[in-house]
Amino acid sequence: xxxxxxxAPSPTGLQHIGGVRTALFNYFFAKSTGGRFILRVEDTDRxxxxxESLQDLFDTMNWLGxxxxxxxxxxxxxxxxxxxxxxxIYRRYAHKLVEKGYAYYCFCSEERLEAxxxxxxxxxxxxxxxDRHCRDLSPEEQNAKLKEFRDAGKEPVIRFKLPLSGATxxxxxxxxxxxxxxxxxSPDPVLLKSDGFPTYHLANVxxxxxxxxxxxxxxxxxIPTGPLHVLLYRAFGWEPPKYCHxxxxxxxxxxxxxxRHGSTSAREFRESGYLPEAIINYVTMVGxxxxxxxxxxxxxxxxxxxxxxxxxxxxGVFDYKKLxxxxxxxxxxxxxxxLAARLMPYLQKAGLCSDPATEKEKAILxxxxxxxxxxxxxxxxxxxxxxxxxxxxxxxxKTILIPKNGTPETTADILRWLAGYTEAFFDRSxxxxxxxxxxxxxxxxxxxxxxxHPLRVAVTGTPVSPPIFETMRLIGKETSSERVRxxxxxx
Length: 491
Ligand code: GLU
Ligand code: ZN
What we know:
- 47% of the residues lie in helices and 11% in strands.
- It has helices at residues 17-32, 51-64, 87-99, 110-122, 139-151, 200-210, 226-236, 266-271, 276-284, 299-305, 320-333, 336-349, 359-372, 381-390, 408-425, 430-444, 448-460, 468-475, 477-488; strands at 4-7, 36-41, 73-74, 77-78, 81-82, 103-106, 157-160, 167-172, 176-181, 190-192, 215-219, 242-246, 249-250, 316-317.
- Helix 13 (359-372) runs antiparallel to helix 18 and helix 15 crosses helix 17.
- The mean pLDDT is 95.
- The site of zinc ion (ZN) has 5 residues, from loops.
- The site of glutamic acid has 8 residues, from helix 6.
């Protein structure tokens, strides 16, 4: 049997990193078993749907290179499956369930349901949710109401007739048997809404069946709906797929991962310059491991070695520091050319380079890459790191030029000496320059850092910069000398 799995997000918000993990697990499971990966957009909740979320879903899949294997034809390309385009199918199946006696029309008005909710809120009764008012209408009553509705151009909703007693068991590959009393399921859930759109339950079950999904890998938070879905499969006379719910992703404090912990949307990670390679690797390791030691996997490797057996039943911990570390490692694996190409958009966004970049800008960046690659955690760090290569520096507050143990007087004196030396600097090697600065520091009874600090701030405008000698060579003799002179002039 060929494995067939799907990632089935609802475009009602930006792609969450937990959703990304679900997508990755599905994708790698499909690949590692020679199966097929399907993308299905569950967009039948039209109130919560947004175009922006749909676009974000595509951007995310594209960024991570998660291509789906099939879908309806669309102008030469295919897919994904979009539920809002399949309403007719769900309607047909919902009516089939009514015919078979597993579902029924509900004619209750919004006002009646609202009044019911109010009443239940105020009374202490155990009974919550729909009161099954329309469940046992006689065929005559039902037909009369149906006619009345349709004459008025309306459609009633269709509700599922839940068994009143008993319990339903869902088998989960990871969590084992999950049993739920049927009386604990919210009474007679709506399958088809009055706008003709299906609810999540109906569309999800029908599609998983029609698309011949073999395994449902989805977030743990969907476990509560599982038994209802099993009942729906039974009503249709279908075999449910195998379930494998995925343990939740949490922050280091044991709480569900949220804004409080840091970025949670794929877009934030993308925009701040995490490499897709690093996200794929790290996020797959949240709750899955190959063995106790191997940490680095390329996408191609994961396509081979991923397996459900190695999913950890305990919640996965998302460690932002670890991700930063992974990202740094991946940044350093890139060739200088590749890294420069990926950095350029960040410089353009910061307004430091033009778009398209000029040859000169490209050359400056190429020169800077070897100086910054060891220090970049994420690509967006680049603009602050090398702003001074593209823009003039202005030291507004001259006290930042003063080293820890210095005074305005000693600093002014050092800067004047440096201003006199900068021209000569460019005729010497780094070793020679270091020796000269060291000797000068000794003569003044200070540390070499007390000379390097004002030099660095003068040239780059900040006390942290890439290695200062290389940086000066990148900026050139003229600009470097001018900046040091200007800084000396501040005192
Ligand atoms: N549309 C649901 C979601 O937003 C899908 C749940 C499932 O995978 O069955 O996650
Ligand atoms: Zn009703």
